[in-house]
Amino acid sequence: MIDDKILYKRFLDGDISAFEKLVIKHKDNLIYFISRYTGGDIYAAEDIAQDVFAYVYTYKEKYKFSYSFKTFIYTLGRNKSIDYVRKQSRIDLNPLDRDDERLFSEESLEDKIIKDEEKRLLFNSLKKLNPEYERVIYLVDFEELSYKEIGKVLGKTLGQTKILIHRARNKLKLIMEKGAENDER
């Protein structure tokens, strides 16, 4: 098998097939490596690996021959994975869709099914609330903002915010109780 550095030199000289050989040689292991950062999300890992190779192709002069090509792409993969995870945590506006518990705990299948069912009931119940109640529940219970911060976000006084939260929680409780009763039938 041809050494990576030789293939890379050929690639620098314009041999695109040499680059393709490098990709084929390293892509599977790179995807597996990246998937450890993405929580096992193989599709995200594949996308990130593709970004790594696109970066290498675009910025071919960035690779220094003082260390291995594999080290170079794995470093890029790690950095791009960390960026991806940071970006995902910023855009994850709906915590009800997150499956972090599944990734980081060793709960039984039965416990997971129960939690998933509870999440589904909560999510469906939230959708039945009027938009103002849904927003305030989200801000207080998922974003964990203080009542004062919520008041500022919604343009309400502290007293109005407390009343709104109280009413929203009561309405959510009623909707969830009805939903649980309907599921039992």
TrEMBL record:
Keywords tagged on the record: DNA-binding, Sigma factor, Transcription, Transcription regulation
GO molecular function annotations of the record: DNA binding; sigma factor activity
Domain of life according to the entry: Bacteria
InterPro entries in the cross-refs: RNA_pol_sigma-70-like (IPR039425), RNA_pol_sigma-70_dom (IPR014284), RNA_pol_sigma70_r2 (IPR007627), RNA_pol_sigma70_r4_t2 (IPR013249), RNA_pol_sigma_r2 (IPR013325), RNA_pol_sigma_r3/r4-like (IPR013324), WH-like_DNA-bd_sf (IPR036388)
Segments forming domain RNA polymerase sigma factor 70 region 4 type: 124-172
One Pfam family cited in the UniProt record for this chain: Sigma70_r4_2
Keyword Repeat: no
SUPFAM superfamilies: Sigma2 domain of RNA polymerase sigma factors (SSF88946), Sigma3 and sigma4 domains of RNA polymerase sigma factors (SSF88659)
GO biological process: DNA-templated transcription initiation
Residue ranges occupied by any RNA polymerase sigma-70 region domain in the UniProt entry: 23-90
UniProt keyword Magnesium present: no
Family named by the database record: Belongs to the sigma-70 factor family. ECF subfamily.
Protein name per its UniProtKB record: RNA polymerase sigma factor
